[in-house]
Amino acid sequence: MPRPRRSRAAEALAAVLLLALATACGSRLPESDFEHRERATATRDGARDSGPIRVGVITSATSPVGGDAFTGPRDGAKAYFERLNARGGIDGRKVEVRECDDGGSGVGNNTCVHRLIDEDKVVALVATTALDYAGASRVSRARVPDIGGQPIGAAYDTWPHLYGIYGSLAPRNGTTGWAGKQYGGTEVYRYFKREHGARTAAVVSYNQAASAAYASLVERGLRAEGYKVVTEQVDFALPNFRAVAADLKEQGADLVFDAIDSHGNARLCEAMDDAGVEVTAKVTNVQNWTSTVPDDYKDAPRCRNALWATGSSRNFEDTGHPAVREFRDATEGLKAHAQWQLEGWAAARWFAEAAKDCAARETGVTRACVDGFVNRSEGYTAGGLLVPVVFERMPEPPGSRRTCLSVARWEDGRGWVSQGDMNTTCFDVPQLPYQP
């Protein structure tokens, strides 16, 4: 049964925002921002307290998008802290996770920020996944490090002390990106062109503002890489995916990109199978990189086996890698696995490494010390789970950039199969501006 329109509208918007912002670039603060306040923060935060170290996790768990849409990073972070505590914690202190569900609203988010920062006195926020991060400026003013959050909105390219899981090159001085514009690369389109000879790409969107805006960004990137672009727009209330599928077949599309929700994607895939459409790749993103593909696309076996996902973290199915194997061992009790869970695990590991470093210092584990550690984390990889994360304060937006990406393809019976190594699948690509 189709989900209520309000839920699908929110999901479409959230997916579009995530896709558009996941490849954005960002920044680093000067070291002077952290001078002359280590000792004062240590006293205020009780650095030498032998009690637990509190961290906050804000998640839009009960947002209009649905109960499971944004919970992956939270679950991954909690799994990491549980294993860390079982092994003695940090310098003998357990990590105490204080969760807050903001309900997907700005009011709820501000309430969570106030409770965690002012009442619970958390040292840091970890793996934030908020549909409306309205409290971001408050987090920044309080100088509380927010580590490894998902860039669903523009906050991680706007405010200091916020460190998105994919890094940032922007100044982060209170203005989004550079003069209100963010920049994203064309590495995904370059990959399919060079590695698989793709030449014609279709972009499917709704006749809804956020969906159409993101589709336009994808189209620009594809054209910059020399693709023939086929645009397909459907009515949001009554989408005719059969007509889209018929045109995809007639146009001979090699790739299909989309700016629609997961429910719409499943219906599009069913229509493609019914019409006999065969493509090199039906490209999805990290949010849909999950083990639930067989259920989500149960009525579209051909399209299901053409699903490809791209991102900036190591495939959660790559259990031959020790860091992934540790993650999978610790999360074997979860009913499903997802790439966002792995990224939440990586965010928690990032905090733990910062806290361990601070525990050995005179200041102890304070907000300022943890913030300084993360701010200096040039090329952080969480033990090989992430493409090296960079925070660099660039006064001008980059014209081009060398960007690496993780690529996986779904295969029935095998799951998500990695395609090459993410640290060598790299391209020098232009950076295109867009308005968030």
From TrEMBL:
Presence of keyword Signal: yes
Residue stretches of biased makeup (Basic and acidic residues): 30-48
Record's keyword terms, sorted: Signal
All copies of domain Leucine-binding protein, residue ranges: 52-392
Region (Disordered): 30-54
Family the entry assigns: Belongs to the leucine-binding protein family.
Official protein name in the record: Leucine-binding protein domain-containing protein
Organism: Streptomyces lincolnensis
Biological classification of the source: Bacteria, Bacillati, Actinomycetota, Actinomycetes, Kitasatosporales
